[in-house]
Amino acid sequence: MPDSDVLSASVSTLQRMLSARTISSEELVNTYLGQIEAENEALNAVITLCREQALTDARAADHILSRGEGNPLTGIPLLHKDIFCTQGVRTTCGSHMLETFEPAYDATVVAKLKAAGTVTLGKCNMDEFAMGSSNETSYFGAVKNPWDLNCVPGGSSGGSAAALAAGFAPLVTGTDTGGSIRQPASLCGITGLKPTYGRVSRLGIIAFASSLDQAGPMARSAEDCAHMLTAMSGIDAGDSTSADRAVPDFAAALNGEIEGLRIGIPREYFNEALNPDVQERIMAALSLLEKAGARLIDIDLPHTHYAIATYYVIAPAEASANLARYDGVRFGHRCDAPIDLEDLYLRSRSEGFGEEVQRRILVGTYALSSGFYDAYFNKAQQVRRIIAEDFHRAFETVDVIAGPSAPNVAFQRGAKQQDPVAMYMEDIYTLAVNLAGLPGLSTPAGLINGMPVGLQLIGKAFDETTILNTAHRLQQDTDWHTIRPNFGAFQS
Amino acid sequence: MSVTPEDIEKVALLARLSISESELPEVTERFSKVLDLVDELNTINTDGVVPMSNPHDMTQRLRADTVTSHNAREALMASAPAQDSGYFLVPKVID
């Protein structure tokens, strides 16, 4: 099989080849590492490589496979977003603050994926502390979109999305606090799933906004995401917000059968913010689902408009509390020659954090400060409930809610950097899903002038199966998820 | 509601961030834009709505009071930028 076919193969194809011993995990790892080494300079998607450990782990996986053992992910290479703690491997969160930080333990997600047999190739670039929608806020430089190197890949899991789209790995991890898996998945033409809040343990994920953060899979297909989600999920004694719910075999549940499925189309998502070409692609995808037996039902999510304001109080408030730990004392950046404790805090933090992170800490501190707590934080938490109730009401009459993942295709680097509010609008369709704690995924819905569009599918709490199955059906009926960017090994 | 550079300086101190005089006008302007955005919350009636801090209204789980992890002091201290004899070092606090 030529390299370009291996680099674009699905996990199930790779697993068949590994089981049949027509390729070894070591060969796979070498192929992907070679691709990263050849092409990453153009993308800046990967910021740490684990070559030696990856080859050691691959050989161990090959040993298991040679005995005819293993599971669907044994020997499959993957990349982690650099927000997941990896023992002994630097974990930067895209920040100067953590430039040299080497965690003493693995995140639960990392440990679970390792236990499932995956092989970690390295760590992906990201917006600093996961705050951004364009991957331009990373201390390690902007990530480029393999579909157009002048465009952003989305964010904050933009390094992960770009790496996957470029064939650097068949699976990548992401995290999603307000759209950080779904929006870059949309802009890079891949499948990405944000699970229900609590489905996946947050232990060892560098905290941004703790009531919103979730980790999830990003892959070439809904089926690949399903395999990965099964391995990542489950209650964890180390995360008291992880949910005590049985974890189904998500991949086994995919049958593509959507006869009678009720898909709600929120009127509020098709507003003036939506690019008309994106709207057309979304409607085309929805009509295919209708042909496959689904019923499209107009619904209302009347408080959609308030999601951005609500999010930009709650997320910064939680971030300001979470990021208080960076004090220049226990870990992270420390300024040179502090004259006193105050100076140590002020300079370590101001030098260590970038502009967007500092802005959100300021907003959050303001919203939590005496005299403003009720007007901002408490109020936002009340509106959060109203937004969540919109979804609960809608799910009384529909099984899935569908709409765009992002209002536009990928935009040019620098286009929105000067205006934080314009950047925040990128997440207009994804934020509310985090506020309500629901699962959401983005699946490719074709191209506009060569740039990918994503269809967002939102599910009931803990019903990732239905949105995965809906995406799976669309991926059986179209080839949108198999279109590759004209980049690197995929260049024609 | 707009904020003044003095407001920003006060919040920055609370957040232990230092903002230089030259950056202050731009930081204030961009901060104000975000505040204008979130001020939309004031247009919605929330009388009697219980604030939502967890999307599933979960409460904290209790666990048995037993030792669950080993002492990893050395591994954790290894990340400290300044230390001595197992202690974190900070500038002199008490004269």
Overview of the molecule:
The complex is a heterodimer of chains A (492) and B (95). In chain A, 38% of the residues lie in helices and 13% in strands. With 492 residues, chain A is α/β, with parallel strands linked by helices. Chain B is mainly α. Chain B has helices at residues 5-14, 24-38, 73-77, and strands spanning 83-84, 87-88. The two termini of chain B are 43 Å apart. At the A-B interface, α10, α11, α12, α13 and α14 of A face α1 and α2 of B.
What's the arrangement of secondary structure elements?
The complex is a heterodimer of chains A (492) and B (95).
Chain A: H1 3-7, H2 11-19, H3 25-43, E1 46-49, H4 51-66, E2 77-81, H5 108-115, E3 119-124, H6 158-165, E4 171-176, H7 182-188, E5 191-194, E6 214-219, H8 222-232, E7 262-266, H9 276-291, E8 295-299, H10 307-322, H11 341-352, H12 355-368, H13 374-394, E9 400-404, H14 420-424, H15 431-436, E10 440-448, E11 451-459, H16 464-477
Parallel strand pairs in A: 2-3, 2-4, 7-8, 7-9
Antiparallel strand pairs in A: 1-3, 4-6, 5-6, 5-10, 9-11, 10-11
Chain B: H1 5-14, H2 24-38, H3 73-77, E1 83-84, E2 87-88
Antiparallel strand pairs in B: 1-2
Quick take:
The complex is a heterodimer of chains A (492) and B (95). Chain A contains 16 helices and 11 strands.
Features:
heterodimer, A: 492 residues, alpha/beta, Amidase signature (AS) enzymes, eleven-stranded mixed β-sheet, 16 helices, globular, B: 95 residues, mainly alpha, Histone, subunit A, two-stranded antiparallel sheet
